[in-house]
Amino acid sequence: MIEVLFICLGNICRSPMAEAVFRDLVKKKGLEGKISVDSAGTGSWHVGNPPHEGTSSLLKEKGISTEGMAARVVEEEDLEKFDYLIAMDAENISALKVIARYSGNAAISRLLDLVDESETKDVPDPYYTGNFEEVYSLVTRGCEKLLDRIVKEHNL
Known about the structure:
With 156 residues, the chain is an alpha/beta fold. The chain contains six helices and four strands; from the N terminus they run βαβααβαβαα.
């Protein structure tokens, strides 16, 4: 099983959006038994909370489920368990390296590093900007590229 973890600051906006979008893409490709996906945050403010209303309502409009999702914090064990740690911005990558003094085998990268044509490499935080549509567009493009990469790297 290939394990993917999406990471943002509070795990209520960007990373759960990426988790839900990626899970939907994996399901549409028939790869549920080969790829597992989760999300977490680097901060603990929202632990146990469902995704932000802006994320939930936008994904519901798109027909993508967030059922059963609850915010959690990245744990040191995650760096060993997951094959891909996909951060939403450079700050999240820095926090990941501090959290565990990275010693795992996971590939750590920003989601938009996978999108060559992206003008930005950090997914903006809609908790502060309010622009969930922009984030959805960026996350979707990044998730599509990530899935293509995983399929290619693992011959799925």
